[in-house]
Fold each of these.
Amino acid sequence: MTKSFDILIVGIGGQGTILASNILGEACLREGRHVKGAETHGMAQRGGSVETHIRIDGLYGPLIVPGTADLLISFDLLEALRYSHYLKNGGKMVINRQMVLPTSVFTQKTPIPTESEITGQLARFDPCLIDADRIATEAGSSLAQNVVILGAASWSIPLKAESLLAAVKKLVPPKTVEANARAFEMGRAFGRAR
Amino acid sequence: MERHYLLGNEAIAHACLESGIGFASGYPGTPSSEVVDVLRMQKDLTFHVEWSVNEKVALENALAAAWCGLRSICTMKHVGLNVAADPLMTSAYTGVTVGLVIMSADDPFAHSSQNEQDTRCYAHFARLPCLDPAGVQEAHDMVSTAFAISEEFSLPVLFRPTTRICHSKGDVELGAIVPNTKVGEFHKDPRQYVVIPAHTRILHKKLNGKQPALKKRLVELGLNHYTIRGKTAIIASGIGAAYVQELLPPGVSFMKIGAYPIDEAWLGEFAQKHEKILIIEELAPVVEEAVRQVAGCVPVFGKINGYAPYEGELSPAVVAGIMTKAGFLEKNPFTAPDPVPDLPLRPPILCAGCHHRAAFYAMKKVFGESAIYPSDIGCYTLGLQLGAVDTTICMGASITVGSGISHSDASHDVICTIGDSTFLHTGIQGLMNAVYNGASMTVVILDNRITAMTGHQPNPNTGVTATGAESPPISLDAICRSCGVTFVETVDPYDLTGMLRVLEEAKKKKGVRVVIAKQMCVIAARRAGVKRGRYAVNPEICTGCGTCVKFGCPAIEFVDEKARTNELCSGCAVCGRLCPVGAISREAKK
């Protein structure tokens, strides 16, 4: 079996999981490491729950098996819970504190989960919960939430922070490089303080 | 050479550029679409690239280009190959002058498809070679090999990456781009290109004659290979081979199949050296059947005797389960923890402000629950969640299923939905047929001016080609009228009152009636800079009746017995029009 470092990034279609994957992949290239990944495209993206697998030093398949992920990064609180069974014992979790309520709870009148209920269920994973919207807005763009979360998670990722930051600068739209670089640093500072 | 972190389809597209292609065509379909999307975005194009109106059209165009001496790639998803099957079968007879690679992307687990068919079965059926990559780098490398095989044997070559190749990423080593310098020229040769019976009988014999050398060549090229490590063996193909390599215990031989047809003599020799063989492959038991034919009394474990599933996709966990069951692993290394139960689902959903939702709402309002709603393939298949999709089979089958029902069940209104791209793909024939044969039904063309679901590819209705050049406008109205439809009305579905009025009129008429519900795709509109302003609910007026919530827009929430809108609102205004008490209106500018 390969000893890859397996990261599952989850969220909702449109939240930037694919950019996050590209940043990790680019950082691997900079360090001369192999990397494999898998993502959700097509119809399933339309506001649906999406998952991106990244295997740093991965040599074979792109998929992470439930119960084996080293790190779970979630851009949405509810999605973190949905995919929590992917995490191995002792794996790390870095999660956006915010939650987009699924339309299904309104149309099907199911009980609406609250933030405290979900954080309670996640407590056994000792997650790093991050107010990504606030930090991203402070950094200069609320669209940089994915980069904030990546910054917070960077302590748990076996890649140099410089490689990740260089990848962020290369891959975000040119006009947003400064805001995203700040978002990464602020996220990273938050992750350390914790 | 520099390494890049690329999507499988991006790597495949780059490999086409490295192979000096002169022609590219395709019809969008997940998971294949990004190949032509990457090719069409290249600067200083040295080749022709097009989104064709359907896969049959795409393949016939690419075949002709290959006859003219241009290396050609034609892309589609697996079910698109059904549409292109007619030219595919006979293209094996006529062959090609230079390389033609037909990429048909399979979708095990039907992530974004109506079935789980296997392109390798078509390759066997047509007697064409088929390459089957196990990873992103191999998918890239196989493209140039596919062109070489196509030219060596003068045959089109099928190339079948799966979803977990097309939409996987990996660090890939790329080669240099070779700009096309060839100018195509068609040389007449009726015995090759005119398949009258006298010619085709000879061509069929030629095709069959190519098979033995082809099988040997695929082994020589290293596409099919093995390592002997013990008395038991695993034979795997496609992404399954990658999963097996992660789990392969010491002392177990491994054979990787990357190309078909498989050389039986070579396969038999390997099989006879082992006491037990396990087959790991997705979809149909193509490798397994080949192995069983040559295995003699060596026990074979696979789908046919219940060790592996026919349906769904493989994963390391599934493969480990099969290996354990067949005795190749003592213990499954994965524990398969259960997901947290009963979480609210988050399925894909029509976007906030999608005009299909408004059209479905109006249709249901006018035609009611008892009407029958055949539908088609596109974002609007998600209308299922709104109770406005009763059937979906394949591209273009809304109008045809609708007319079939109208002839067979006179007690219900039939109102079918089809998108503009799907209508142009295979819908027009159904409409012509319905009018010609006297069906009574309403057809709603959900016209968003683009092929949205697969990533916003242009079609003849968009006004631009794949490369962004302006194209002559086509008129859906005129197409419908020329098919003999007399009631054709175009209406903006955001104008709920107008939409309801037109549908009421249509309902009163007999025969085939067409309503064209025309509005820009909300994503395309946002990208084009259309800003309409958000709508908001006035909690003082809202009675909490839930009418807007039932509409199902993700921009509408319902908390503490009142509706409210969120930041997803695109300003389509439809909820404002359907609120019975007028509580929803455009938000005042801050």
Note: Residues 177-193 of chain A form the longest helix (17 residues).
Amino acid sequence: MLLELSSEQELLRETTARFLDANAQVAELRRLRDDPRGFASDYWRRGAELGWTSLLVSEDDGGVSSSSSGLVELTLVAYEFGRHAAPGPLVSTNVVAGALSAAGAHKELIAGLLNGTSIGTWCVSEAPPNDGLGNMVFDIAVHDDELVLNGVKRPVESANEASHLLVTGRTAEGLTQVIIPAATKGVSLIPMRGVDLTKRFSVVRFDDVRVPAACLVGRVGEAADDVERQLQHALVVLNAEALGAMQRAFDMTVEWAFDRYSFGRPLASYQALKHRFAHMATWLQASHAIGDEAARAVAERRPEAALLVSAAKAYIGEYGAELLQECVQLHGGIGVTFEHDLHLFLRRLTLARVLHGTPDAHRRRLADLVARKEVAS
Amino acid sequence: MNVEVESLESFRERASAFIRANLRPVTKRTVSSALRANHRDEEELAEVAREREVQRMLFDAGLAGICVPCPYGGQGLTPAHQRVLNAEMRGYEYPTRAQVPTFTPCLAVLLEFGTEEQRRRHVPAILKGEELWMQFLSEPSCGSDVAGALTSAVRDGNEWVLNGSKVWTTGAWWSDWALCLARTDWDVSKHSGLTVFMFPIKSPGIEVQRVEMLNGSKEFCQEYLSDLRVPDSQRIGEVNKGWTVGSRWMFHERMGQNSSLVTMPEGTIRAGGAGATMHAIARAAGKLSDPRACELIGEAQMLQLVGEALRRRVGQGIATRTMSDQSSAIARLFLGLAETRRATIAFELAGSAGATWIDSDGELAEWGIDFLMRQAMCIGGGTTEMAANVISERVLGMPRELTPDRDLPFREVPRSRSKPG
């Protein structure tokens, strides 16, 4: 998280923290374990009123993002989401809201996303073997004034709750995006099981889904830059959420090391364990550093944004998940029970590790970006 | 009194104009952070001379000692100005050797603990490139345990007589002044009998020997002090209060390139462009389409970007007091491990030509030598184990390690298996 917050930023963070303290308590998260929706619509609507979905939307569209700082502010909300392991499709809805606002269309839907009465999600990832970054095969065909969608997207966050789907696929011309009502004929969902207690994902099938050209977001075949931008937004928010969960688990584990005694002294007095804490503290600060730097670079559309955001995802995906596993190890047996809260955060990191590209995938993307730079120079 | 500070924009213009008109662009890319034995002595001395010249030019242009107060020849500006200078110097020569340890920790210690007279004499000389400083800190008998120094200083009227040996001073053979930690009282506890002195390195009573590293580098030196006489006016801080100075000295040392006293052009961080370097090795090895090689290139690039971001965050956190001074150990631990990992990656990508090469192997050659020296990155400037102690004890507040030497008179402290006290 940012080292220094302005008073407005602190207010935003604090408001979200207080709301989640009251509405995303661990008892509630445990209760939602068997809830097929994963969160209550009232919870999401009230969160949206706090501005959760407004930060990537321009002022013209009713959002608050008049400058480049909206994304950085969104990382503060996401960080609190992570610290609370909070329910709700924060990443997906914001990506959709940001994409629609950038395209300058679909204003009514944006209004619904802003007040929380509509939920949008992004159908981008595909099933193996096409689950790598950029390996998309989803087909969009153009027939006169209609578009026909065929293919499968997975995992799609909160598709069961979403009113609208932003679908990314390929036409003969290239990457193309449409926004369609989730209830469109030919769209079907298969609910997935998964590691998180409250985040729900689905397989979404599109069988000859016919939609009017008015559903286009941007132009046919010209969505590559928008898709890259959306990916960067998703990664920044996902990283910030992961960071919140890492920080919370680390703080819990440091407390534990002082409280827990073995052989007549606290765990925190053993050098073998102190050094492991030192390494964890280093991973954590490094994650904060690269996460914030990537967020700023993406917000300001700097040329190195793609490099930084992939470095952040590769690092946080790998070391964040390792940090959580270290927290489990340092807790001992209690760390792998359902009773203890640690797993709520371990689940978040386990998910964050793989969504929008595994650490391996982002390391390869970094190599690609380096290669392109080398060729260019 | 509220003196108006030069605006960043005006400073940027001034710096940029000077740099473009006077400094030489640097084309040679630093490929490795490991010490390499690739300098002949004459070349090294020529580089030192040029760096002194550049430092003098910067001084004359009002661009030396950005964060050093004006009465001592500095500019009295802010860390933000230093960052502007670092940005403007991207791609240009700069006085590499003047930075660490001259500007930090030595100059930083002088500013903090020197008398007015000491500061007025030495700080401007440093800023003009006339004095390059070294730390006489580590000793053969104690590496990380610097407070266990055995070099003794005995008072003789207005002078002190020093005897002992110091080691791991980079480039002491071409340097001018030393900051030295010595023991002045053996009958009190370890930390209570130390005092800090400064003196010219080219003094009668100092013999400088160069230490040959396993790769042939002779950058490091060892010094032998034999009845070296130092006037009391060259003592820094109070007698037997050397550890008060020493703790801050160590802090300034850990700050290293995060210090706002140090100029470090953007983009010339050690092993600059790790990804690009690894890409070049992989290309030479014909491995660019090997996914495993690509992952390694990506990992090296990731470590570099994360390391730079962490360095900036820690520097900013300490400067704005949102992080404790001790947090510099976090950057140290990260960079030590990241750089050793990068040395391994480079060696892996280079394959057998990293360990056995001919001239035409180009980009592939010699990476095995860096691998031989790999651990230097986790040893020099305080080991990563010490950094882990500092982080757990000083940053996280965990209980200190047992130190049976703390409360004994130093004379009685066990020093080796053969001298158990």
Note: Residues 97 and 110 of chain A are 6 Å apart (CA to CA).
